[in-house]
Structures are given as structure tokens and as C-alpha cells.
Input
Amino acid sequence: MKYRRPFFECCFVPLLLAGVSLLGGCGRNKGGTREMAYVSAPQAFLRDQVAAVYNKAGTVKNGEAVQVLGRDRRFARVRTSSGAEGWLEQRYLISQQTYDAFQKLTEQSRDEPVQATAVAHSQSNIHLQPLRDAEHLYQIDQGAKVSLLKRASSEKMLSGGQARVSAGKEGAAPLTPPPLEDWWLVRDEPGHVGWVLGRMLDVDVPLEIAQYSEGQRLVASFVLDHVGDGDRQVPQYLVLFTENKDGMPFDYNQVRVFTWNVKRHRYETAYRERNLNGVLPVTVSHENFDKEGDLPFFVVRVKDDAGNVTERKYKLNTPIVRRVLAPGAEKEVANPSGVARHRSSVVRKKRH
Output
């Protein structure tokens, strides 16, 4: 007589095996790689429970990696590298994917030339993109210095994350374009790279030079060389200026060279050029110019009406700044104000 398994045995055994397999999978996840996240707040406390009344179970700081053990509404249970466990608000965490994107941005910007050093006048977030609602990870403290790499502009956002545009009739285009705000791609002292709101930064130049801004905004500065004045070496500067408002179509529209007068012990303008459609980056270096010897030079990039970018090279033989022209190009003679004569005449013709 052939044995038949009872009905409950036919159903129960496969279910039991499936359960064992599922439990085995959970066990492997527990012992395997867990979700990682990174703390974006300057500092935060871990809670021992998700409740109005709680005890502090630990502390985490900006940029710290934590292991995510679980999630509950607005909170995530995490474990730090020191083994402390507790609940942390999820808004203080960014994902591994975002962290990797910051690492990629840092690597891509490794060779970006520094355009200036700036000082943060308040604590600011470092964003992944030049947008207020973009992911952020690191912070720069008030008074910290950062290197400026690149400028960008984006639409100004409302607190709710919407673009601020002027209202028009329903279904019609805005009466005026939305206001823009400037951002800078920066590298902080620990080497983190990201975007910071431009109005949070001030270009770090001596007060003797900043006083010559004449209502314009300092964009960047470069030390060209040094001159001896008594027992000290005084730097001479190339400084870029722009209009004192955000969202301009150019990075800068004026360049000035400040040299040091060793007799009067003060900075003076050796060269000035206005009405430029300037594009960053600017290059500064040294070169041997035959009889003149080793001199500092700088190269500015200027965009024309068609959007083409050309380079202009200048050399400084203190206190004279001259354009370095390619062989066969039209000669330019620097006048006492430092602006090329034939360029000045062109500007006058355009104005008339």
C-alpha cells in the first residue's frame, strides 16, 4: 500500500523551508554590509529613544560616517565608528550616493586654478550644486578661509524651494526675469570642495587695495610679485572687479594692477582696463622676456558678442604693464593710465 503524506505536511514543510531560507537571508544582511550615511549637521546628539523625553546616547559631528540600523518616520537609528548607538533626525544625514558625488566633485576640481582666497563672514553650508536646495554635507565656519575656484549664478529661491519670479497674467510669461544669485565653487582648508553662496564670502585682500573698489565688487586677486621696501617684501597685485550685484553675464568687467611705490610707501594703480566681458580662470606666472629678464605676466580671457573667448597676455615690468602681442599683431603702447591707446579710441568710437 502506497504511503500518502497528510495534507498539512504537504503545505507546512515547504513553508517551513521558505521561512528558514528567509531567516537565513536576514541573518546574512545583519552580518553583511549595512547602509552607510554621513552627518551633514555641524554637530548633533544621538537619542536613546524616539520620544519627547530622551537621554543623550552619543554625539556625532559634521562629515562623520555612521551605519544605519533602522528608520522610524523622521528618525534613523545609527551606530558610530566608536560603537555608540542612538536615534538621529534623518534630515541630518546624507546618503552614500551623495557622499560619493562630493568625492567625485573634489576629484574633478583637483586641477582647477585658485582665483582668490576668501573669508567666510558667517557659517555656511557647502552644497553639491550652486542651488540653495541642493544637497549639502560640509560646513565652513565664520572666519574660515577658502580658495575660490569658479563662479556660477542660479535663480534665487523662496524658502519653499520655488523660484522667485515676478507675477504676470495667468498663463503669461513673467513680467521680469527672476533675480539671480552668485555662487562660488570653493575648496576649504581640509580639502572639501563644493558650492557656497557668494554673499557669504569676502575676497581676502589688503585694506589698502580694497579701498580702491569704488563701489564695485572684488571678484579675485593674484599676487604678481614682491618688491623690497626696507626690511619687508610687499606683494603687488592683479585684482578683478565686477558690478556690485549678482547674476552678471560676465565674471568680471575690470582688471587693475596695483604696484607698490617704495618712496611713498603705498599702493598705486599701475594699470586699469574697463568694459571687459571677462571669463575665469585668469592665469598668472613668470616668463623670461629677453633683455627685460624674468617678469610676472597674466592672461585674461575675454568673450566677444558672438560668445568666442580670446586670451590677452600682459607683462609687468614695475611699474609699467604692457600687452604681450603675438608676432605681426598691431602694436599697443601703454599710456600713463595703463590703458592701451588704440583700445581707448575704439571705446570712444563705440560710445559716439
Observations:
- The longest strand covers residues 217-229.
- Residues 7-31 form the longest helix (25 residues).
- Residues 36-97 form a domain with the SH3 type barrels. fold (CATH 2.30.30.40).
